[in-house]
Write a structure and sequence with these properties.
By secondary structure, the protein is of the alpha+beta class. The chain is built from two helices and 22 strands.
């Protein structure tokens, strides 16, 4: 009998050891694996760059001045003939055709924009020159032309509607500068189209706001910019409640304004809201492959929940089920709706 116990003991030893090794291996994997999950990023910043295939961006807004660099063409329809100055020669005009190129620039005064249409996938940079109490806002686009419609606004005090362009052709004339006086009562229609690389600078009216919702994001987003003097990567976060949250596991991470932040979307990732007010306030939401932060580009660490966090959350959810069943049975018993024993 003693000889038969030895193999059994060995079998029990190795079985127990295998269970412990498998458990430790599973625990190690669960605590070091970070599956893709839904992330919400809510931050205030000075600048942000991203790629998008959106067909339209920016809500309507009122501008005291709008500067467009890289104007491709303008079509202006005036309510009534207005003075048109081309190369110092002033003539009345009721419509104006302006053609430009990458080096052309136009300033528009007292206008309302209806937003911007994008031609294909574009790299967009949104920025504010001064984040405190700003009414100025910049948009840069690379890789796709932009177009949109403007409407002139009535004269208000010393602010008169008008258009000034440099290095353009007016009504198929020679290259030069042009000044278009728009109708004092407003209502003139302007269509603009840009070159593939352009910048638009908005100087909003005091009571106007600019922003947008549901802008699809393609590819990695780095919440930083490169210092032109040193090429070092610097954060663009501002003071405020900057937060990354993972709602499926109830995990929230507060960001410091000195943190670098990098987001790698997996799918269905959107700039769900952005608004220009004391900087750019944005909310991004969608399925992220990775979200990292750190004090510098070489020291980024993931914020993503581990597989263990997901399993622990599922355990809590499923652990509620027996309690709910017990509660329901108790209510039914009180109401005498259960069959008698």
């Amino acid at each position: 009998m003693a000889r038969q116990r030895t193999p059994i003991r060995r079998w029990l030893f190795w079985t127990t050891a295998a269970v412990w090794i498998a458990t430790l291996a599973a625990l190690l994997i669960a605590t070091h694996t970070h599956p893709a999950t839904t992330a919400r990023i809510a931050v205030s910043l000075r600048e942000i760059s991203f790629r998008t295939n959106a067909r339209h961006i920016l809500e309507p807004s009122d501008e005291e001045q709008l500067l467009i660099s890289g104007v491709g063409s303008l079509q202006i329809r005036l309510n009534s003939p207005q003075p048109l100055s081309v190369g110092g020669v002033v003539i009345p005009a009721s419509s104006v055709q302006i053609d430009g190129g990458p080096s052309s620039a136009c300033s528009f005064y007292q206008v309302r924009s209806s937003g911007i249409n994008l031609d294909g996938t574009s790299a967009i940079t949104l920025g504010v020159p001064n984040p405190v109490g700003t009414t100025a806002f910049d948009l840069k686009a690379h890789g796709g032309a932009l177009n949109g419609n403007l409407t002139s606004r009535p004269t208000t005090g010393d602010l008169k509607p008008g258009v000034e362009c440099a290095r353009v052709r007016t009504n198929q004339g020679p290259v030069g500068d042009v000044v278009v006086n728009l109708s004092p009562e407003g209502g003139d229609a302007i269509f603009f189209a840009t070159s593939a690389d352009t910048q638009m600078s908005f100087d909003l009216t005091a009571n106007s706001e600019i922003g947008d919702t549901q802008v699809p994001i393609l590819g990695q987003v780095r919440f930083s910019h490169n210092d032109p003097r040193t090429l070092d990567e610097k954060t663009v976060l501002l003071k405020g409640k900057n937060e990354v949250s993972f709602e499926k596991v109830g995990k929230n991470e507060i960001l410091d304004e000195a943190d670098l932040l990098v987001v790698d979307p997996k799918s269905d990732f959107y700039l769900t809201r952005f608004k220009v007010k004391d900087g750019i306030n944005i909310i991004m939401y969608g399925i992220a492959r990775d979200v990292r932060r750190g004090p510098g580009a070489g020291a980024l660490e993931t914020l993503m929940p581990t597989l263990f966090d997901h399993l622990d959350n599922m355990k809590r959810i499923y652990g509620v089920a027996p309690s709910l069943v017990t509660l329901i049975l108790g209510i039914l018993d009180k109401m005498k709706l259960l069959p008698e024993k």
